[in-house]
Amino acid sequence: MIRTICLLVAAGWIFLSCSKGKGDSAPPVDTTGTAIKVNVKVMSYNIRRGIGMSSPDINLQGTADVINAIQPDLVSLSEVDRYTKRSGTTVDQAKELGRLTGMHAYFTRAISYDGGEYGDAVLSRYPILDSARYALPIAIPGSEFRSMAMITVEAEGIRFHFAASHLDHLGQEDNRILQANEIVKNIVPKLELPLVLAGDMNATPASQTVSILKQQFTFGCISCAFTFPSDKPSSTIDYIMYRPAAQFRVMSYGPVNGKLASDHLPVVSVLQMTKKR
């Protein structure tokens, strides 16, 4: 009898504890953690020093108009001049585009050219917390050296790197292979934060160069649309990629057709970044 009463009491306690209302006890502890999700609009644009398809003259306002119409958060710029005779000995193109778009700018030299410098740049709506220049090597003597411009930014609590690069343009792939290996094997492994890399890789999706980059990066496109030339696109050489894959989701991706302020189309992607609190 005593044993029966104890069982009934225990059963009643279990019933009562399971039937409590929502306001009767503290909510359960979330052991999985919540995540921060932030959408970032990224743009890759080889600007050809501001030279469009309809005129040989430099028109940085035209370049800025394209950027302003798209309203990206981050822009990778390829083929940028700084204080060269051909583009203006007092003109820092990255800085000027920053002024015309209201964005922060950072430039890195790939080579010295025409009394000034020629290379890559990034624009950012977020304050630039840190910046770095990486020199990329060449395998073919006499070729142009290349560079990668990298900044560190923070978007709504998520800190990450954004980088711009422009790999070698020669038909022979040796330089691009060496440059891709430098990025994948010597630069990326030293980085602790997530990285978005964008730019003119001068390599098609089936190339060995792209295959090497895929060792560390996930490309935003699967069937990548044509990006060059801008008036009649027939090849894909401009990309946006990221790592690690688990911290990104591609919300949209593709070239913006009809933009003829350069010989390349701008490529734009909205990336959703995720980080546990």
Characteristics:
21% helix, disordered N terminus, alpha+beta, 35% strand, six-stranded mixed β-sheet, 277 residues, 12 strands
User: What is CATH's topology name?
Assistant: Deoxyribonuclease I, Chain A
The profile of the biggest β sheet is:
6 strands, mixed
Q: Total domains, how many?
A: 1
- The counted number of beta strands is 12
Molecular shape: globular
Distance N to C terminus: 54 Å
For the CA atoms, what is the radius of gyration?
A: 25 Å
What features would you describe in this structure?
The protein is an alpha+beta fold and 277 residues long. It has a single domain, classed as 4-Layer Sandwich (Deoxyribonuclease I, Chain A). The chain is built from five helices and twelve strands. It has helices spanning 2-18, 60-70, 93-101, 174-187, 208-213, and strands spanning 35-46, 74-82, 104-113, 116-124, 130-136, 146-155, 158-166, 195-200, 218-219, 238-243, 248-255, 267-276. The strands form two sheets. A six-stranded mixed β-sheet has the order 3-4-2-1-12-11. It has a six-stranded mixed β-sheet with strand order 5-6-7-8-10-9, covered by helices on one side. A hairpin with a 2-residue loop joins β6 (146-155) and β7. α2 (60-70) packs across α3 (93-101). 40% of the residues are buried. Residues 1-32 have low confidence and may be disordered.
